[in-house]
Amino acid sequence: MRVHFGRLALAAVLTAAGVAVTAPAAVAGTGAITGIGGKCVDVPSSANGTRVQLWSCTGGSVQQWTAGADGTVVAASGKCLDVAGGSVANGAAVQVYDCNGTGAQRWTPHAGALVNTASGKCLDAVGVSSADGTRLQTWTCTGGANQAWTLPGGTAAAGFCPQGPFGSPLPSSHQSATKIQGGFNFLEGPTWDQASQSLLLTNMHDGAGAQHVQPSDILRYTPATGAFTTVIPDAGSNGLALARDGKSVIAATHDQRSVSRYDLATGQRSTLAANFGGRAFNSPNDVTEGPDGTVYFTDPDFQRADRPDGMAGKTAVFRAHDGVVSLIDDTIREPNGIELSPDGRTLYVGGNATGKIYRYPVNADGSTGPRADFASLAGTDGGTIDCAGNVYQVTYGDGVVHVLSPSGAALGTVSAGPNATNAAFGGPDGRTLYITSGRPSAGGDSGDFALYSVRLNVPGWPY
Questions:
Q1: Per-residue model confidence as pLDDT tens digits over 234-265
Q2: Which Gene Ontology terms cover its molecular function (predicted)?
Q3: What would the pLDDT profile of 25-64 be if each residue is shown by its tens digit?
């Protein structure tokens, strides 16, 4: 991913989400600032204390801002973008106020976000909403779509990726990962939670009940303490993806043959995709979310168990947006891992039973274009992608992560355990690759899966 704010100059060292980063300061430019949903940053009055909001872009003076080289963001009225009371707390109101040179009025673009230099918190649209009148606040940086901003004269993409160029992703062409902890029945779906600096992952158990459906729990691994804890019991999940709001996790939930969202604070479950045209999915497996909130997921039949086939023998790739489920492709036998490029323009899908990885162009509305072959690779399972756009595709039977360039060229491998299922980037700098791998159960929850990790050269994309 490349991030440009006009011309950029290295300037401030700040702490964002608990991570020290060197960030560029914006060279002055005047125009609109746009955010989630393409809405403009708007201030309806020049009075001190007026809350800043999102509004449909009109081109009017209330939506004109000057991003200064000194870190100020100044409205047409001459008032500065300001954190009320200089607060460093999550949820602090963002307003306009007489320019006073304090840290509450200094902002630094970093990886597509706009960071207040005093608090290290990101400019954030409340409630991950793009509705007219949505107020702005500061919040712990999550990489969510509601924290992605385009400044005058520049473009940006949400996320935690630093500017390139990037070198080789692997220290050597054949890397070996280190076991962190074993003894789990069947691990899947790792995804990094930036806010808590921890890894979420699924532990699936052996099939139970009359239909032999596999129950599962969502675990949390905290590297700082080495602890594994259960955060959502009986989640029924397989693949996971941290949501763009940074406050929930999207889960491919085979227990209900659905795609679900779990609030990480409350554990509350909601359904994002229940069926396709009234027909039950097989067993949603892996999932990812685009910058506009579109959820993409694969639907093989691995965890359908003894339940009726609602898809007439087909396995497929789907997308869901605002409650509407659309078919992407139902001609891939056992589609499995699914990854979205950092710029949101390319979707990758592993064909577990076809010996291919496929790619689809992603349109501005979240729909996809014609499928093309990306690489030949048999037995694909989950995967991830790094900030340079390199694809990390896991193959189950040999416990290997295959690293492929954006053109599909093989760059090397990472080995971890006998049967690898999935991989995700994490860690404070995003350069730790976590891999789930092990020996499956022979009955009675006798599996022995472990979490592995390896340090790589290029940070990874968290979604």
A1: 999 999 999 877 789 999 999 999 999 999 99
A2: hydrolase activity; metal ion binding
A3: 333 467 889 889 889 999 999 999 999 999 999 988 999 9
336 annotated to a ligand binding site: yes
Q: Is 180 exposed, middle or buried, given 0-12, 13-18 or 19+ CB atoms closer than 10 A? A: middle
Is 403 part of any domain? yes
Q: What DSSP string runs through 350-370?
A: EETTTTEEEEEEB-TTS-B--
How many alpha carbons fall within 13 Å on the CB side of residue 245?
A: 17
| Shared domain check, 192 and 53 | no
pLDDT digits (tens, 9 = 90+) for 366-401: 899 999 999 999 999 999 999 999 999 999 999 999
The answer on whether 289 is annotated among ligand-binding residues is: no
Domain end (from 122, 155, 188): 155
Domain boundary among 155, 190, 207: 155
Report the Cα–Cα distance between both ends of the chain, in Å, rounded.
Answer: 14
Q: Would you call 381 a catalytic residue per the annotation?
A: yes
Residues 180 and 145 in one domain: no
Residue found by looking up tokens 């689809």 in the block = 360
User: Is the residue at 164 inside a domain?
Assistant: no
Of 42, 381, 386, 448, the active-site residue reads 381
pTM of the model: 0.71
CB 146 within 8 A of CB 128: yes
- Are the beta carbons of 180 and 189 closer than 8 angstroms? no
Residue bearing tokens 């760059």: 411
